[in-house]
Amino acid sequence: MSKEDDALLVDEDQDIPDKLYFRIGEVAELVGVESHVLRYWEGEFKMRPHRSSSGQRLYRKRDISRFLKIKRLLHTQGFTIAGARKALMPKEGEEQGGDGNLPVDLEKLREVVERVARVRVELNQLRRALQTLDASVGSR
């Protein structure tokens, strides 16, 4: 393997800055392709980046890792789009839901768990307030 090939085999966690969201220009620079290529890959690999309130694409580290894998498959290993798509499909038992059909987005799942915990705290506070109110009305 040549040094050029080694350079293309980038570790998926290469010097990616530690922040939550990245704009398309930042991702294009990190991955080493033009932004229109990222938009094309989004469609081909059924990726849906988060959108800002103004509609701008916002990517996470896992999206960048996926783009790096796609680039490696297409540019270094010579896969076709269809072949790369197939290679990126989750394998048996790999990050799938309990029924084996639905992929699990662990980050979104954590967000939902945190949201449910906050709602539970608020509901308990409301219940205590109602009990206090009920007690004060009952004592009249």
Structure description:
With 140 residues, the chain is mainly alpha-helical. It has 2 domains: 89 residues, Orthogonal Bundle (Multidrug-efflux Transporter Regulator, Chain: A, Domain 2), CATH 1.10.1660.10; 43 residues. Helix content is 58%, strand content 5%. Strand 2 and strand 3 form a beta hairpin. It has 6 helices and 3 strands. The N and C termini lie far apart (87 Å). Helix 4 crosses helix 5. Strands 1-3-2 form a 3-stranded antiparallel β-sheet. It is elongated.
Q: Would you summarize the structure shown here?
A:
The chain has 140 residues and is mainly alpha-helical. It has six helices and three strands, in the order αβααββααα.
- The share of residues in extended strands comes to 5-15%
Q: What is the string of SSEs from the N terminus onward?
A: HEHHEEHHH
Largest sheet: 3 strands, antiparallel
Name the strands of the widest sheet in spatial order. 1-3-2
Number of structural units classed as domains: 2
Euclidean distance between termini CA atoms = 87 Å
Overall shape:
elongated
The CATH architecture of the largest domain would be: Orthogonal Bundle
Q: What gyration radius follows from the Cα positions, in whole Å?
A: 23 Å
Portion of residues within helices: 55-70%
Give a topology summary:
Blueprint: H1 3-8, E1 22-23, H2 24-31, H3 35-44, E2 50-51, E3 57-59, H4 61-76, H5 81-88, H6 106-138
Antiparallel strand pairs: 1-3, 2-3
Helix pairs in contact: 4-5
